[in-house]
Amino acid sequence: MSIETPALGTANEFIARHIGPREGDIKAMLQLLGHEDIEALTANVIPDSIKGTSVLDLPAGQGEAEALAAIKAIAAKNQLFKSYIGQGYYPCHTPSPILRNLLENPAWYTAYTPYQPEISQGRLEALLNFQTLVSDLAGLPVANASLLDEGTAAAEAMTFCKRLAKNKASQAFFASQHCHPQTLDVLRTRAEPLGIEVVIGDERELSDASAYFGALLQYPAANGDVFDYRALVERFHAAGALVAVAADLLALTLLTPPGEFGADVALGSAQRFGVPLGFGGPHAAYFATRDSFKRDMPGRLVGVSIDRHGQPALRLAMQTREQHIRREKATSNICTAQVLLANIASMYAVYHGPQGLTRIANRVHQLTAILAEGLSQLGVTVEQAHFFDTLTLATGARTLDLHAAARAQRLNLREVDAVRLGLSLDETTTQADVEQLWALFADGQALPAFADLAATVASRLPAALLRQSAILAHPVFNRYHSETELMRYLRKLADKDLALDRSMIPLGSCTMKLNAASEMIPVTWAEFGALHPFAPAEQSRGYAELTTELEAMLCQATGYDAVSLQPNAGSQGEYAGLLAIRAYHQSRGDDQRDICLIPQSAHGTNPATAAMVGMRVVVTACDARGNVDIADLKAKAEEHQERLAALMITYPSTHGVFEEGIREICEIIHANGGQVYIDGANMNAMVGLCAPGQFGGDVSHLNLHKTFCIPHGGGGPGVGPIGVKAHLAPFLPGHAQMARKEGAVSAAPFGSASILPITWMYIRMMGGDGLRRATQLAILNANYIARRLEEHYPVLYTGSNGLVAHECILDLRPLKETSGISVDDVAKRLIDYGFHAPTMSFPVPGTLMIEPTESESKEELDRFCDAMIRIREEIRAVEAGELDKDDNPLKNAPHTAHELVGEWTHRYSRELAVYPTASLVDGKYWPPVGRVDNVYGDRNLVCACPSIEAYQDA
Ligand SMILES: Cc1ncc(COP(=O)(O)O)c(C=O)c1O
Fold first, then answer.
1. 316, 115 contact by CB (below 8 A)
2. Residues of the chain with pLDDT under 50
């Protein structure tokens, strides 16, 4: 049954834009599956025990133009004051060519995490630039390709220090009172379950460094001071402690970098490198460390390796720590990071280059020095002798009035306390701004003459800490300074990659669906982009309306009673969810409940998260059909009855099946005193059909970057909100800016707020019927693929009705036996056919997990199935000896254009190599490198841009 659009309106019009298959296609697909209609199919897939649990009751979908007008009206309720609040968030200019060619370009934002390096060389290069940028500025040799925000990066640094410091006896971590307050809040949240004591104090008064395993310092300090930490770092080192420094990247262009004064870790936010404030996120955090610690780094690391032809090629290094996190050793749960934002920062540095960045930093500093001097002349007490861009002013009894006067002129100053306030300048500050600030404080006095001060003020950076080492000497930061060059560089990199704008990305568990342009448009509106996260509440009424509405929409989609939008990735949602469970048990005096049952098939983040909240993981078995072994689960729940805290279970399962026993499973856990965490990564199979909050879940996270259309950005951003039943609502994450102050899991109250409009737009345009329809089509598309491919590759798991949920797993292990062809070979051969491979070897080694999503048309599904069937024929030819078992198009895949021009020595034709189907002639994707050597890359770990000499050799 199709959903009608009224003749004189646009209601529900968007649904057919979002959904791939047309009505006629749907009929044909259903016919193949032997089902009358889509209702019959989905009724057959959803187990009876949970059927009808959906509480989704939203109005019809709004047309694109109307929805954009509605969100514009919401956006208009945000008021854009000029922000001098600072505290880790600074206005900046996103260079227009980066805005247009990267941030707003689907070639960049619709890409997936670069697990398949051959089709990801462009974004890998951009990320390697980011790592080089960070490593250079921080003065530490190894940097990762982003963490989620400065607060969580600091928390990662704390546990990193705990693992690696020599002082094993200590459980205490020193955090300077000069750190940003939101960072201290996240530290407190993360430390408590691990039994770590965070001691917040003034490092200048530190008496005994040996009490600590590690320390966190802020550079420059949150109040603006630039302290010399050299002696302090030595004291910590002498006591066997490690030191992490949260540092401002722009300031580091002028100041001695943390690595040069002995820091073991540098971390922080790259926001002010061209990323909009966005009411707190998303922004890329960075993390850099010493060479000897590189294998312990959290997050993803891009490394240099070689391809099959011995040519340099990039890849994610040490990937096995991710999807395959070894449960008992997991130390961090970070998965989705902030790739798109890291790439913006990377390109900001590429565009400005070392001189440009230094010029910006100098300008910000000089304007701050001029401002300070003028304020002093006006009789205002500036507390800092040395500073970079931030001042704390002792304003005494005038403080409240000054804030009020500032607001009357649409300016926000930092609220420090009753007698002091703060000011941070930034890249956007001008002479007129400085004069406006002087006028605010002048109290009727004549203003200083800007030109006179500009000619006379000296630098207020401490002479002993002026940076001596050069920055960004690498050619990549010195080549692309004209807009023409940058535009072409971005195009060149994008052309190397395969994103959703070229072909389907059938990654199981990742839900790579359409990220519609109308959903994306509000993201770069200033009304959403230019708001500081700590702006007064009356200025963010638009955000308040948006988030309140979105929370209600997500409650309906999941059947939960309350939602927190704060977690900024699925992993963080898991963390917030388990924290809520833990706090609930504690509130009932059940402090001993610390066991988390997790089925064997779980995603790696689940056990990692359980470890982070101090829970002990007990793994439960799966049966031969991939379902939770209920008898084993029951036995373990009963065995640990006294200490059972939670079950973490993914539904539908990571095996792509709606397990029929889910209600019974939830009941067993509840009967034994535990809470049920339903991992909602697979929510795309449920919206509008069944609701985890109604069939036994107590809490779930959603990946808005899967089910709810936030693009994956090449590996982030993401949003991982959690829904909870009412009894857990009091334990949702709090924030200093919210009613509940404790339990912040992100630095900003709404995590990655500026991308929430994407999900709002999606839900608004799809409406209740459209969302339900999307789920049905996701199930149809997956079953269609499973049916078309099952005679060629066995489908590993199905429900009792022979159907799958929204994804299916193909078992390639038997082929390895008969032909020597591995799952890797098939994945790489798909590149020759123009496809991104499905998820490889998760959750079962030697398999491919395919999730087409509802957005792919029948034509695209057929193109993919045809490619898979042709590949099976090629494997058959290997089995039959018609193709050589070693020198065949599968083992040598993917084939580059460059290979074709040399002497062709293979035992198969060039045509078979690169044009295995005639249709490819019309639109061929050429991978820029051959198969990348993973082992070489991990053995010879190089995680910054190759040296200048290497470029000269090339
Ligand atoms: C089942 C499952 N749970 C959790 C996650 C973690 O989500 P994120 O990558 O947003 O941290 C994923 C991500 O792929 C997943 O597939």
1. yes
2. 321-325, 952-954
